[in-house]
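seq:
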Amino acid sequence: MDLVAACRVLVEVEERGGVTRAAAALDIAQSVASRRIDALERHLGGPLLERSSRSAVLTPFGKDLVPSARRLVQLADELELDADRARLRPVSIAVPETCTTRDLAVAEATARGAGVRLDLRREPPARRAELAATRTVRVSIVAVPAAGARWQVPLGAAGRRHNDRPLRLEGLRTRRTIRRHDDDHGSRLRIGPEDDVPHVRDVLDRAAEAAGLLPSQLPTDATTTSSLAAVLADGDLLLCSEAESVAYGLHWRPFVGTELARGYAVLAESEHDADAVQRAVADELAVALGVPDVG
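struct:
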């Protein structure tokens, strides 16, 4: 038995003075309304209507139950309203700062088409992990080691000058002699906030030490803007994805002899949120993160 539906009939009978009028108010057949009253009587263990009267009159038992029935109906209506509001509440997602506005707009538009509303927030790696741990956001795209990650983004070096050759870290070693203008010797490889994480930085530091680079050749910047400014002003190189280099108007080169990649995973307060987001915009998020050859 649908207890709430039956209580709706009882409340309408009390307010309108008859089963027929109650059925009309609820837009159901009179026979349906009568069956609901009968079921409610069996459930509650007593008669609700005076069956001998030509018009429906509530019994004393029925009258005593109307206030509780009315409260139950009101609570049910409030519950449905709250559910509607909850469905409309956007799923908050913390994403890397490297995602472009346009890529995120495409992801949000695609999600709307799938019936999911997103609230996308660009944050650095540590902040994304913190927001997920404190459940300040419902979903976070967190930085993880590339091996086994949901998404993998290869890293290379980007600079002002065009160069088709893959980059060896050994090629950045400082030399006393002056080389050609387009030579990489002595260049600094700048690290932005997105790559200042152990599983990227530690790999790079070990490879750089083996290649004979000075620690000063791997400066870390507090913001991507600072990194990009140094690239544009001083001719430094920027550790980044190919997609980022395109967005920044730089020339990107892959590494040779050193494999560096970002890894990303979905961390969510509930599996339902994680599954809903990935079903709706997995490919769009991949593009925003810089994953090559999506689709």
